[in-house]
Amino acid sequence: MGIDTTINNIPALTWNWLKINNAPFSYSAAMNAAGSAVKGTVPAGVSYTADADAEADAYRGIETGAGKNTDSIFETTAGHTALIKAEKNVHVSAPVRIDFTQDDRSSTVSAQIIRAEEGSSITVILVYTSGKRASGFQAVRTICSAGKNAYIHLVKVQLLGSSFTQIDDTGTVCEEGGRVEVTQIILGGKETYAGVAAALPSYQSSFKSDTAYLCLNGQKLDMNYVVRHTGRKTDSKMSVKGTLRDTTAKTYRGTIDFKKGCAGATGNEQEETLLLSPTVVNKSIPLILCDEEDVAGEHGATIGRLGEDTLFYMQSRGISKKSAEQIMARAKVTSAASLIPDESVVTLILTYLDKAFTYE
């Protein structure tokens, strides 16, 4: 299958010379649909369907962050779209975990639908791993649908090999009082394209995301996060923290879109980027679009090197500059990892960080 398109398109175009309106994407390989099997026992109150194609049509209209230009990729998931559903008024205490272990030179595509019925809550964790130097392609699309007063916590942890390319595409929608939270850790891969789109069409629905990354040794990371407020008194919060070093390149597009009719809506996005090399390329575009008067939107970005005061404080206590940089880079990831309710997954992340710094 050959792909030559643009993905992660920003909702409102800016100057072409900035090269941040979208991400050009090309790939050519035979792609195989991969199932999404739950690790361990499915918790009580959760129904799991490995082949949910019959129900998938109801969710096809939900916007995703990577965008419609990736639809042709995910057409190969026919017969392999999984449905994970929390039953009405059931609060699932144990997280549902799905592990994707990628073989070297593999090319896989998978899709999941996570549905929380009215009054329920569920946490779903997706973990992507492979050999340290493995190569290949992985595309994952996840749709989250939170019913009335329901809650979904989606966790995505990317620990792929150093020559992998990944598209991680997410779309969410909430009914009245529904909430979706996305925690995303991106550490591996050669090129990662992460997109998240959140629709808030209903009264007092909300979305929250916490993303952390570490880019070393020429990695490329391209992100596109979009929240569309159409319901009254909706709320969104987005946080992105990460570190760039060597010849890495990162693009972050974060859009809060206040549509007419979303009176009383609030939105906030914050970005922190630590630059540890003069050769990194960082592009950030926090964007607020507004078609409604009675709203409150905020955005901010902190981008730069390790502060001289912080560095002096650490060196005065016997901590070298290199160790200080590692501590700060690690802290950005662990702050997001602390939100993951599975100690074994957190341990995987910390172990990956230890190895990344050991072999640098």
Structure notes:
This protein has helices at residues 53-56, 71-74, 308-315, 321-337, 343-358, and strands at residues 2-7, 23-28, 32-33, 46-49, 81-86, 96-102, 106-116, 121-130, 135-146, 151-159, 163-174, 179-186, 191-200, 206-215, 220-229, 235-244, 249-258, 265-275, 281-290, 295-304. The protein has one domain (2-307). It is mostly beta strands and 360 residues long. The mean pLDDT is 94. Strands 3, 4, 5, 7, 9, 11, 13, 15, 17 and 19 form a 10-stranded mixed β-sheet that branches. It has an 8-stranded parallel β-sheet with strand order 6-8-10-12-14-16-18-20, covered by helices on one side.
List keywords for this structure.
5 helices, eight-stranded parallel sheet, mainly beta, 360 residues
Main sheet properties: 10 strands, mixed
The Rg value, from CA coordinates, equals: 20 Å
Per DSSP E runs of 2 or more residues, the count of β-strands stands at 20
Shape: globular
Order of helices and strands: EEEEHHEEEEEEEEEEEEEEEEHHH
The whole-number mean of residue pLDDT values reads 94
Summing up helix and strand content along with how strands pair, one would put the structural category as mainly beta
Report the end-to-end length measured between terminal Cα atoms: 35 Å
Helicity, as a percent range: 10-25%
Beta-strand residue fraction: over 45%
Q: What's the topology here?
A:
Layout: E1 2-7, E2 23-28, E3 32-33, E4 46-49, H1 53-56, H2 71-74, E5 81-86, E6 96-102, E7 106-116, E8 121-130, E9 135-146, E10 151-159, E11 163-174, E12 179-186, E13 191-200, E14 206-215, E15 220-229, E16 235-244, E17 249-258, E18 265-275, E19 281-290, E20 295-304, H3 308-315, H4 321-337, H5 343-358
Parallel strand pairs: 3-7, 5-7, 6-8, 7-9, 8-10, 9-11, 10-12, 11-13, 12-14, 13-15, 14-16, 15-17, 16-18, 17-19, 18-20
Antiparallel strand pairs: 1-2, 4-5
Helix pairs in contact: 4-5
